[in-house]
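Slide 14.
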Amino acid sequence: MKIVCISDTHGKHRQFEIPNGDVLIHAGDIMTSGWDGSEVRDFNDWLGELPHPHKIVIAGNHDWLFEKHRSTRNLITHAVYLEDSGTEIDGIKFWGSPVQPEFMNWAFNRRRGEDIQKHWDLIPEGIDVLITHGPPAGFQDWTRRGGESLGCRNLRNTVSKIKPQVHVFGHIHGGYGGDHDGTTYFVNASLLNEAYQVANKPIVVELSE
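Slide 15: predicted structure.
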């Protein structure tokens, strides 16, 4: 299974060349300000123009409409929208969550510790591909290489327990790229850089079924 990973397009989705594959994953931050429904409609239209037979989308901290108005989820008709929920494609199990550790006053913020752990406890055993908006602590979670780790420690501990084959996320634009701990391939698929400029390419992962 060829999985194409993208995240943090912030309204600039049409500026990217998206390689073909079996599954397209968008790990959140579809929008810019987060309140303009026309952005979501255009994003959904764009999804419908792409050839991938399966598409999965989660929201991110910029995607306010998805948290404040549940009906926004209904605007995504050309992909499966996940929010602390899962789906299965050809025997591969996916799980997605938009939450991330609290930072300023953004959507899907949760306090570190018990508050955010409630969401990670919902992730069932046997997940092959985990999709979260924010990174786990220690993996592609810096604004610059060698800088402060900004990821979620609770999420990292949960990933160590569940052991998915792939963990896709974004949120921290400077952490773009991949890493492997011997069990899980960690993919920060942020397509914009820290200055919100088009900078990175989609990351393609080949997953054994």
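Speaker note: The longest strand covers residues 92-97.
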